[in-house]
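Hi Prof. W.,

I finally got the DUF4031 domain-containing protein prediction working! I wasn't sure whether to trim anything, so I left the full sequence exactly as given:
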Amino acid sequence: MTLYIDPPTWPGHGRLWSHLVSDVSYAELHAFADALGVPRRAFERDHYDLPAHRYGDAVSAGALEVSSREVVRLLHGAGLRRRKGAARTAPGAQPRSS
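And this is what came out:
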């Protein structure tokens, strides 16, 4: 299982955020996030948003540090990239649960 995370450089809600992604499946991504205790509400289309203070937790759990550009490239290469406004369920996507 290999997951990827970009540096916490994305501002929002008074914090900086990282994106956690898989290059295999949403199921793999959800399992990793569940193991970290990341709530499912942090999942947005094709990635989890992690606040800067959780970055080290993800890396310690095995996420590989990559650039933001690499995150997008990995998602595209795996066919997992879902842009804003795209259909809610992409082929191979796992339904969100609350």
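Confidence is low (pLDDT under 50) at residues 89-98. Does that look reasonable to you?

Thanks,
D.
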